Amino acid sequence: MPAKIAIIYYTTYGHIRKLVDATAAGVKAAKGADGAPLNAEVTIYQFPEILSDEILAKQYAAPKDTSIPVIKATDLPQYDGFIFAFPTRYGRAVAQASAFFDSTGGLWASQALNGKMGSIVTSTATQHGGQETTVATTLPFFAHHGIIFVPIGYKSKLISTTDAVQGGSPWGATTVAGPDGSRQPSELELELAAYHGEHFASIVTKYVS
């Protein structure tokens, strides 16, 4: 059976959504060691919004994509792995993601997610704004549920590039949005996000099979 992967995201200005699309493409393109397609299934969800339309308007937030379903905690057990994608706030997960994590108490009590696999994609305003701490401070959620964290390591040479401002680390794919949000994900960052998806799909497929 092909691995079933959910990508669950929150985006304020659209940066994360661009990474998500590249990551999903990577999942779909993933191949095994023999070059055969893995045919991993990927479904994209949004985190529930907790802010009012008035506050979102004051933040100049991008409109929601109504074609993407909103995740419910009860949706999670049907998947073999999850890629959570969300911006950074003060070096940790954005409130919308944290609120959703808090809603999974029933799954924690039954350990319904124990043995599933998870990975994280994020963005920051600056290069030193918490790309790694955001992942690190999300790991307790993984640990309490028994979700196995899958980083991407240094296998991809894209992480070691120093020619320009860029996101991405062994913890996972990221982007740098700029203090005013004007910087968009670079081609290198999108390529790394695609690699993240491919790598995650290959690891989850090995585990499932």
Helix/strand layout:
Elements: E1 4-9, H1 15-29, E2 41-46, H2 53-58, E3 81-89, E4 92-93, H3 95-102, H4 105-110, E5 117-124, H5 131-136, H6 139-145, E6 148-149, E7 174-176, H7 187-208
Parallel strand pairs: 1-2, 1-3, 3-5, 5-6, 5-7
Antiparallel strand pairs: 3-4
Q: What does the oligomeric state look like here?
A: single chain
User: Would you tell me the overall average pLDDT?
Assistant: 96
Distance between the termini: 8 Å
Helix content: 25-40%
CATH class: Alpha Beta
Name of the CATH architecture = 3-Layer(aba) Sandwich
Number of helices: 7
Runs with pLDDT <50, length 5+?
A: none
**How many domain modules?**
1
SSE topology string: EHEHEEHHEHHEEH
Give me the count of strands. 7
Say which CATH homologous superfamily is assigned. Flavodoxin domain
Tell me, briefly, the overall form. globular
Percent of residues in beta strands? 15-25%
Biggest sheet features: 7 strands, mixed
